[in-house]
Amino acid sequence: MVHDLESTNGILVNRKKVQRAVLKPGDLLQAGGVDFRIRQLDEEMFVHIKEETTDLKPTGASVTTDVFFPVSDAVSFFSRLKFPEGMVAGQSQRMNEIYEKLNSLVDSDVNVVLVGETGVGKELIARMLHLSGRRAQHPFVAVNCAAIPADLLEAELFGIGEKVATDVSRRTGKMVLADQGVLFLDELSAFPIAQQAKILRAIEEKVIYPVGENRAVPVDFRLISATNMQTAELIRAGMLREDLYHRIATVELTVPPLRERKEDIELLCVALLRSISSREKKFIPGITRKLLSILSRYEYPGNVRELSNILSSMVALAIPGEMLDLHLAPGRLLEGSISEMSFEELKTPVNLRQAVDDYTRKLVIQVLHQQDWNLTTTAKYLQLSTFGLRKMMIRLGIPSKKIR
User: Fold this and answer.
1) What is the pTM of this model?
2) Considering its fold, how many domains does the chain have in total?
């Protein structure tokens, strides 16, 4: 349906001025100096659900749309697990195996080590354990060991006593802040070997000694650690004391990389796209099946974090109301899909002209953004005349100026 909200030039449907009209496939809609030909969308071309429009809907919209974000009803939630905000529950076998083990650890207070590549979501899993356990009402304190200089890490964990040095005031350590709750040590491989004996003692005796003080401060926390290296490698390389490992890794869980659970990619795309679109306050109705197919084949060396960055980039480049499609995708996605393509995969005929147009449209828009939508410099970059670029943009349906 189209509704004219008192626009200056009015709205025409099939060249007749209308106040309100229901559009059908084949109709010609003219608004704001632009002609739109209405066509029936192939349901298999894009991912969508039927959902009430939110505050991201276009101004004046008051109807229900069936082109928005999909949500899977197939996700298996384990009864005792509480997922933190921003975490997308996977539905792959690998993730269900992780959830099953976490479900068993809810009532336990044992220390856990999470092993997995950067970007797989180890901290989110640690937070899930915290929220699901008996310590949920107490603090979750995260410490990134790699972000703190080695000579300051002891003070960060144990705290500093009064008047230890000039201009240094008393500071409460992270272990005390985590009392009754959960202490999460991320990037365990960066933890200084020289200080590992002290943390071992703190775990065994449940007391800590602030830097510069002899008084013992009792602490009681659950320890969850994370590393992107295999623990056996850390021990073998002398980066992790074996006696400390046996204290902190009562249970060791390996979080699989995204390339080993590709069944979760569609679900992740949906949830991340919803979140990113809301954050950017930009209405993005969905994602095409062609793009989703490319996203599902990519290997993601940066895991879920990289997928989130890719979608953020495409949302930033998209025109409000535009479906995410191949022309918005970063080059590395398309390069990977082309390099992996084999003739055996081409089960159906390929529309070569459409494929070339899709790639050309993406390239032109990318260069336009790079050149701040300056047609002269864009044409020079693409080794075209300005007239030739304008003609190409009209054919490909690219607007002549950036829509903000």
Assistant:
1) 0.66
2) 2
